[in-house]
Amino acid sequence: MVEMEVHRVQVSSRAYHRVVLRAKQGESSLHIVIGPSEARAIALGHKQQESPRPLSYDMAVGLLREAGAQIQHVAITDLQDGIYYAEIHVTGSDGDDRVVDSRPSDAIALALRWQAPIFAAEAVLEEDESDWDEEDEANGNDLLELTEPSEGSVSMEELLADAQQDLTETQMLEKRLRQAVAEEAYEEAARLRDRLATLND
How many domains does the chain divide into? Predict the structure, then answer.
């Protein structure tokens, strides 16, 4: 495991944004696609700013403290089919260690508020950093204005209709992309977006 730190939160004109992590020692980095609410929460934690009312992550930290639990560290452990996986390592009031499955964005937002270390498996790290077009570094105030993506999910009627007709690969990928965004599976949405861009070149 490599200890990481949040380098910046980047916002895009598209429906998804990303958090950029860098190794505390070395040149490795990690770019994780996240949603608008997660970007806002991470940016606030990174800038050590508070929202006017507690976010769900602030509440979770408060609950853990009231219960006598401690976040020891969080870890981004795996990458499968374009989706990152993470764990939150917690010590309970009884002294027992527990591991909680988590989305990376949630784990990072909690770690920043607890000031807990963030680790990443070497297998998920990247050697070079490449910026997206039309990106800017975000601060907490900017992200207060971000809203959820407007795309709707694929309906049951559409899914049934798809089964009765031959769709091109591009059409299928577009539908899967809409579904991924609606379900806030932003890592998968980014993978599908890249596949569509390759087909359209």
Answer: 2
Contact (Cβ atoms closer than 8 angstroms) between residue 102 and residue 74? yes
Q: Kindly report, residue by residue over 34-56, the tens digit of the pLDDT.
A: 887 888 889 889 888 887 788 88
Q: 150 lies in a domain?
A: no
Last residue of a domain, one of 121, 143, 165: 143
CA distances from 158 to 107, 162, 167 (A): 34, 6, 12
104 HSE (CA, 13 A, CB side): 30
CB 41 within 8 A of CB 58: no
- Dist. CA 24–CA 18, nearest whole Å: 19
Q: What is the 3-state secondary structure (H, E, C) of 159-201?
A: HHHHHCCCCCHHHHHHHHHHHHHHCCCHHHHHHHHHHHHHHHC
- Which value, to the nearest 10 degrees, does the dihedral of the CA atoms of residues 56, 62, 64, 66 take? -150
Residue 149: inside a domain, yes or no?
A: no
Instruction: Give the tens place of pLDDT for each residue, 130-154.
Output: 554 445 555 555 554 443 443 443 3
**Separate counts of helices (H) and strands (E) for the chain:** 7, 8
